[in-house]
From TrEMBL:
Annotated source species: Acerihabitans arboris
Protein name: Uncharacterized protein
Length: 336
């Protein structure tokens, strides 16, 4: 079905059709009403866009996915059920963040050739040896989940004690970032081009994006929580704390450089070419037929769930959670 999955603050995952913006039916009810006992049922919705309702916390999301914890655990290679069980335990721990932000970041780095280690050469000499730049680039796309605090530009890992983050609201960013990093002056991104932002050694552009269900799951579990289970996270957190006590913090290296002001004439597109669009008669007929079929199927699903659903169906507008401010790295992004 065409539509979106909505994580609601009553800890229920709902489905809303693209052709009915006032009705959101629990996905579990959809599965039950269709008498679909297929353990792979959720896979049909892995690529559907996700909306998170304002006020929905990490605990709400965990409880919403509980019916499908087994298949998600296999896909993510994470003990999803152990996280769900852990957040249901009572705890006096205070929340350490004001919100958890989910974001997509694509990083572009110059690819370098690393020569083989020489006989008898120690690792310090090897890693400090000059690298040879190539004509290629390393391009990595990551779905990230970080913790943020009001009036604090830094971003923080959410892996560790699950009880300190379980009641923190989760927000999906509607922006993605493509960033170029480099210690030398880089012209990979034209700094005079509208929309290119330069901050210290980072140049980046940003644009709109919708997150699909599997991307949100990967961001929360694989990037954010990271560890296979909350028990493994606690054990590693204790070890990291012990190691951190042995490290000297270099605050000077974490100072933010001021934004660089770019002067000069901006020429986004010196050649303005008009594009003529010619639509052949009947070209849109398949799409129209698909939409009409989707509307009929959606009415059928609604009629079933209206009488059979044991979970509440939401009628009316659902307010989507929005970021209080857009963050990237350790600075606040400008509006677009």
């Amino acid at each position: 079905m065409d539509g979106a999955l909505i994580f609601c603050k009553d800890a229920i995952l709902r489905f809303r059709s693209d052709y009915d913006d006032l009705t959101a039916i629990p996905l579990l009810s959809v599965q039950a009403c269709l008498e679909n006992e297929d353990p792979l049922f959720l896979l049909k919705y892995f690529r559907h866009p996700v909306i998170i309702e304002e006020g929905t916390t990490l605990s709400h999301i965990f409880l919403a996915i509980k019916p499908w914890a087994k298949i998600l655990g296999i896909y993510l290679d994470i003990d999803v059920m152990s996280y769900i069980d852990e957040i249901r335990k009572p705890s006096q721990a205070e929340s350490v963040f004001d919100w958890i932000g989910i974001q997509k970041v694509t990083s572009i780095h110059r690819a370098y050739q690393h020569q083989d280690i020489k006989p008898g050469e120690d690792f310090t000499s090897y890693f400090n040896r000059e690298r040879i730049p190539t004509k290629h680039f390393d391009i990595e796309a990551d779905y990230t989940a970080n913790g943020y605090k009001n009036k604090d530009k830094e971003h923080y890992s959410i892996s560790g004690d699950i009880h300190t983050i379980k009641n923190v609201p989760v927000v999906v960013s509607d922006r993605q970032v493509v960033a170029s990093y480099g210690y030398e002056k880089s012209n990979l991104m034209n700094r005079k081009y509208t929309g290119v932002t330069v901050n210290n050694k980072i140049s980046y552009i940003q644009g709109r994006i919708n997150f699909s269900f599997y991307e949100v799951m990967e961001a929360i579990f694989n990037d954010g929580l990271f560890y296979f289970s909350p028990q493994a996270a606690n054990a590693n957190l204790a070890m990291i704390k012990k190691m951190a006590e042995m490290l000297d913090q270099d605050e000077a290296g974490n100072q933010e450089a001021p934004m660089q002001e770019i002067s000069g004439k901006i020429d986004d597109n010196p050649v303005d070419k008009s594009i003529a669009i010619d639509i052949t008669e009947g070209a849109m007929d398949p799409m129209i037929e698909h939409i009409e079929a989707e509307k009929i199927y959606w009415r059928y699903i609604k009629s079933l769930c209206d009488s059979l659903s044991e979970l509440p169906i939401r009628i009316g507008h659902i307010e989507e959670a929005m970021l209080p401010e857009y963050r990237f790295s350790n600075f606040i992004m400008e509006d677009i």
